[in-house]
């Protein structure tokens, strides 16, 4: 059953658009702007002084047949959209919840959103291949012939609509009707009949031409400006890989040169470790503390005496639990864009205020070492510091945080900064995990070098004061006092009426 709506422009021109129950309102906007000869990316629809959600179909929009929609001009500043990308299996197993969540401007294309999810901050340091996947297949129909890598294109499902072509990927979030709020994108893959090499050439050419078309209208009015130098123009590879310029890397202090800046520093460090030399006092890779493995099989904290009263809930615990239940039962509104920006700014200011972090790395043999890192240290620095104390520095390993099993990458780039990138603060525990290729005899050897292990100290478990758990038991002795006040005998409490004193005359 078809119907229609009337779209009215600001100059009182109007046009009638036929709609079906499954017609999306963003398509209504584009068709109306095409008939009125207006750019669809600069207008929104409004019905009875309320903005219309362009991302929903007509049957769920609440509009009646013949509804009059007004064309209003969109703000020049793009709004922030929170995008959640639902990954398919088995990639979803490596991500908590199976989703990558990040905020993007509403004028960003779907292709750039995917590129940002591949290697941006949203992926948590993981390198996820979405736009350049290949599947090995035989060229013959019966599984014979030479093998080829065929392109596996991403398929995006947004509110029941599928986008899988390069033309679809050039649509922005705003063109799909998302100008505020959240959007969920379900990702899947489909194997095409195009080879991976041909697809990469087409991607570079297609998105280069698309970028030129998008930038020509913006550069046409500014004819009096001086043209930018030729090296600044994007190349086909730049259009595909470098969607966002990386910030300049912060200079490292002179007393702590990074191993990635000098080609010979890594070789020299490996030679120093192989010779068994202890790092000097001025060496930034020298650990602050070295702890030996426990001598017994039972953890020292489990040997501490425990009282049965430590596990008994007190009145304070019940009151705290009741207060939390009352707090969770209240309805809370979602934060506005301004409040979310203020929250993000406060979090960035909190991270910027961190001057140093004490990182303890726990090794496979239960020994551990601590390093004090500053705001400029990266994951590459921590990996190099670990190699300076391990007995077999040539063996591959990885460093993982206990919460969420986030892996710290061996990279000295600004996106892998320990404080800004991984948001470390205070005292942090990091676990060292051997790579699967490490042989068993290496795993059984002591992890630390002998000179470093000789400086180790035993881990001391702090003594818990005996009266620390007795403070919570003080309120019960006061209970009889309340009973005395409620009785008929007494002091300054409220007395019981005579007619309630049964059995007395």
UniProtKB/TrEMBL annotation:
Entry-linked SUPFAM superfamilies: Ubiquitin-like
Biased composition (Basic residues): 495-505
InterPro entries: TUG-UBL1, Ubiquitin-like_domsf, UBX1_UBXN9
Residues in TUG ubiquitin-like domain copies: 9-71
GO terms for biological process, alphabetical: intracellular protein transport
UniProt feature, compositional bias: Polar residues: 257-273
Gene Ontology cellular-component annotations: cytoplasm; nucleus; vesicle membrane
Domain of life: Eukaryota
Name of a matching Pfam family: TUG-UBL1
Chain ranges passing through the membrane: none
Disordered, as annotated region: 211-288, 456-505
Protein name: Tether containing UBX domain for-like protein
């Amino acid at each position: 059953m078809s119907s229609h709506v009337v779209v009215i422009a600001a100059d009182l021109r109007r046009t009638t658009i036929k709609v079906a129950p499954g017609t999306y309102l963003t398509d209504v906007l584009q068709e109306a702007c095409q008939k009125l000869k207006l750019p669809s990316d600069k207008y929104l629809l409004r019905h009875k002084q309320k903005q219309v959600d362009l991302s929903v179909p007509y049957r769920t929009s609440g509009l009646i047949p013949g509804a009059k929609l007004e064309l209003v001009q969109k703000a020049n500043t793009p709004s922030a959209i929170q995008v959640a990308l639902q990954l398919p299996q088995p990639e979803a197993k490596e991500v908590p919840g199976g989703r990558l969540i990040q905020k993007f401007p509403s004028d960003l294309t779907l292709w750039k959103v995917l590129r940002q999810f591949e290697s941006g901050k949203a992926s948590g340091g993981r390198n996820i291949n979405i736009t350049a996947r290949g599947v090995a297949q035989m060229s013959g129909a019966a599984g014979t012939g030479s093998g080829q890598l065929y392109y596996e294109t991403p398929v995006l499902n947004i509110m029941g609509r599928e986008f899988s072509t390069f033309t679809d990927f050039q649509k922005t979030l705003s063109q799909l009707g998302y100008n505020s709020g959240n959007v969920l994108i379900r990702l899947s893959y489909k194997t095409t009949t195009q080879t991976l090499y041909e697809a990469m050439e087409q991607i570079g050419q297609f998105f280069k031409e698309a970028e030129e078309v998008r930038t020509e209208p913006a550069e046409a009015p500014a004819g009096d400006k001086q043209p930018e130098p030729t090296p600044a123009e994007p190349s086909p590879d730049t259009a595909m890989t470098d969607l966002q310029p990386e910030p300049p890397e912060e200079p490292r202090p002179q007393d702590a040169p990074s191993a990635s800046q000098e080609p010979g520093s890594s070789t020299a460090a490996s030679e120093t470790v192989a010779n068994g030399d202890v790092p000097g006092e001025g060496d930034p890779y020298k650990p602050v503390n070295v702890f030996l493995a426990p001598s017994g099989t039972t953890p020292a904290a489990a040997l501490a005496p425990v009282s049965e009263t430590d596990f008994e809930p007190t009145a304070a615990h019940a009151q705290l639990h009741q207060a939390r239940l009352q707090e969770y039962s209240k309805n809370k509104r979602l934060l506005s864009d301004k409040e979310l920006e203020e929250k993000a700014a406060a979090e960035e200011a909190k991270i910027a205020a961190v001057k140093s972090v004490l990182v303890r790395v726990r090794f496979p043999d239960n020994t551990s070492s601590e390093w004090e890192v500053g705001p400029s240290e990266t994951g590459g620095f921590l990996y190099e510091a670990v190699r300076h104390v391990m007995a077999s520095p040539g063996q591959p390993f990885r460093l993982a945080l206990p919460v969420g099993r986030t892996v710290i990458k061996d990279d000295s780039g600004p996106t892998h900064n320990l404080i800004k990138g991984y948001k470390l603060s205070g005292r942090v525990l990091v676990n060292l995990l051997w790579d699967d290729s490490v042989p068993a005899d290496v795993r059984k050897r002591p992890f630390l070098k002998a000179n470093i292990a000789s400086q180790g100290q035993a881990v001391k478990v702090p003594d818990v004061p005996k009266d620390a758990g007795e403070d919570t038991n003080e309120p019960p002795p006061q209970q009889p006092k309340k009973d005395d006040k409620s009785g008929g005998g007494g002091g300054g409490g409220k007395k019981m009426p005579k007619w309630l004193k049964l059995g007395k005359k």
